[in-house]
Specification:
Length: about 575
């Protein structure tokens, strides 16, 4: 095993076209990363002050969740000015300094592009809503009432109808997310041109790509048909009519032709696409089609959703997880490219969700890192994942901040029949706020995140789970993530090798090989709290003399039973 000190400098990615195939991306949620001015909210100068951490981790790219001007109804995913930094995060000068500082350290910056919708406080929407004859009226989806009610039966992602009544103009507008996030009408070429201009403005400022928020929702069926009303639901499911719409490929290709192709740079683009299928993803990421570099798909993070959806969670079935990951690995093997992620700002913490955040906390955090990072694709690390941050033990409904959670709580309580405790129990392990509690830098008050009062409480376990505690510890989750990143940078098999799932029907063993002829890597992972005799499941004869490249527990005989949550990575040539 390499010692942490001897790891290479992260600036190893050269400028050739598909550099992102060898990159590791780190997502920063600015609000919760580091607060430089004591107002309890993270900011750009806070990020600048923590670049040593990112550099020593070895990541190549930073993806910043939105920092644009916003009323923060959805923590910045509701943008009121695409060309301004929200004062709570800093200034354009701070932003330019951050880009320069990242570039100087050999890292790149990807911005969040939220263009399915704007804020209702964006100038475009103010104009659009000012009168039915305003030239920007058609920039959004306005419709008259149908039989005195909503124009369609579509439900919003954040509860209730997806239509908001506007008294002044006597029409409804569409908002797939909160009522403060009206959907842009991409059918209108002026909208597309305005978005393209804005993207170019950021690229010319030095950014290296975009993560595109719900980009598979920008093309809607203009007929706006009703959705099916599932049993027990009030509203219809409009998803089939507003996702993967008839012009989605055309819009992405046009964006590429107008924005990226004419520029000299090589950019990383990742389309966030809830509900995307493998077949669709292959089309989106086929290099010959010039649409996006990769997509975020949601299949593996939906496997613990029960019949009642995300708030009705159930334990993960390891066989289902393997089936899903195998399908994505194989589906995008010959054409296209995968993104790899467990966590982001919308997901509960993976170690609590799919691992064991009790007795086997560190081992299971490392195991999850290994089985993801060693697949074929571009891995994304969400802030805090590299130190094994866990879900938060929210003690009361008043600890929650996220609009999705708050709307769900209000609905559940209004429906009657549920106590506050019961609703809290449903929300606790599922809420997006689990990802949004502040980054845990050290054991001091508020985890070193802020000197003020944090906008959301820091997880009490910051006393033990923090960057400072792991910084010099070779056996830490942090050191393990560094080694995973190093492995991707130093062993081409991790980028290029074919993926072969082993023992797909085993209910605890997650095992796969990466293969290029005789060049092979074997990953053996025990996703359970009891020992697992791997030699009885997989023929390890050919691996007897191979090297243990990396493991999360004290090394022993490579053929011995796997200990609880042990992962072993073997290599032969
Ligand atoms: O988080 C979700 C539900 O729990 C997802 O449905 C999520 O809303 C969806 O993945 C879209 O997410 C993105 O767009 C939203 C924003 O709230 C999320 O933070 C963002 O990642 C609207 O902009």
């Amino acid at each position: 095993m390499t010692s942490v000190e001897s790891l290479p400098h992260p600036a190893q990615i050269t400028d050739e076209g598909e550099w992102w195939r060898r990159a590791v991306v780190y997502q920063v949620y600015p609000r919760s990363f580091a607060d430089s001015d004591g107002d309890g909210i993270g900011d750009l100068r806070g990020i600048i002050s923590r670049l040593d951490h990112l550099e020593s981790l070895g990541v190549d790219v930073v993806w910043l969740s939105p920092i644009y001007a916003s009323p923060h109804d959805d923590n910045g995913y509701d943008i009121s000015d695409y060309r301004a930094i929200d004062p709570v995060f800093g200034t354009l000068d701070d932003f330019d300094e951050l880009v320069a500082a990242l570039h100087a350290r050999g890292m790149r910056l990807v911005m969040d592009l939220v263009v399915n919708h704007t804020s209702d406080e964006h100038e475009w929407f103010r104009e659009s809503s000012s009168s039915t004859s305003n030239p920007k009226r058609d920039w959004y989806w306005w419709r008259p009432p149908r039989d005195g009610a909503e124009p369609t039966n579509w439900e919003s992602f954040f509860s209730g109808s997806a239509w908001q009544w506007d008294e002044a103009s006597g029409e409804y507008y569409l908002h797939l997310f909160s009522r403060k996030q009206p959907d842009l009408n991409w059918e209108n070429p002026e909208v597309r041109a305005a978005v393209h201009d804005m993207m170019g403005w950021w690229l010319d400022r030095g950014v290296d790509g975009f993560r595109m928020d719900v980009i598979n929702l920008i093309s809607k069926d203009p007929a706006l048909p009703d959705g099916v009303v599932e049993p027990g639901r009030t509203w219809g499911n409009g998803f089939p009519h507003y996702s993967y719409g008839p012009r989605i490929h055309e819009f992405l290709r046009e964006m590429n032709d107008v924005v990226f192709a004419p520029r000299a740079g090589t950019y990383l683009t990742v389309g966030e696409m809830p509900g995307v299928t493998v077949e669709q993803a292959r089309r989106f990421t086929d290099p010959d089609r010039h649409e996006v570099s990769m997509v975020f798909q949601f299949e593996h993070v939906g496997l613990d959703h029960g019949e009642g959806g995300k708030w009705d969670s159930r334990p993960l079935d390891v066989v289902e997880l393997k089936r899903s990951m195998k399908r994505w690995q194989e589906g995008l093997a010959a054409v296209g490219w995968n993104s790899l992620y467990w966590n982001n700002h919308d997901q509960p913490r993976a170690v609590s969700r799919f691992g064991d955040d009790g007795e086997h906390w560190a081992a299971s955090a490392m195991l999850l890192g290994a089985i993801l990072h060693l697949q074929r694709g571009t891995p994304f690390i969400y802030q805090g994942e590299e130190i094994g941050m866990t879900n938060s033990p929210f003690a009361a409904l008043s600890d929650l901040r996220d609009i999705e959670s708050l709307n769900y709580i209000a609905d559940a309580l209004a429906a009657g029949g549920s106590t506050e405790e019961a609703v809290l129990a449903a929300v606790r392990g599922v809420s997006r706020d689990n990802a949004r509690t502040p980054m845990q830098w050290d054991a001091s008050a508020h985890g070193g995140f802020t000197t003020g009062a944090p906008w959301i409480p820091v997880n009490p376990n910051h006393a033990t789970v923090n960057v400072a505690a792991q910084a010099g510890d070779e056996a830490s989750v942090l050191a393990f993530y560094r080694r995973l990143i190093e492995l991707r940078h130093t062993d081409p098999l991790v980028t290029t090798g074919a993926f072969e799932m082993l023992a797909p029907e085993h209910d605890r063993l997650f095992a796969f090989e990466r293969v290029d002829g005789d060049d092979r890597m074997l990953v053996l992972a025990n996703m359970s709290g009891s020992a697992l005799g791997v030699a009885e499941v997989i023929d390890l004869a050919g691996w007897r003399d191979s090297d243990l490249v990396l493991g999360n527990l004290e090394p022993g005989d490579v053929r011995a039973a796997l200990r609880p949550w042990e992962v072993r990575i073997l290599r032969r040539q």
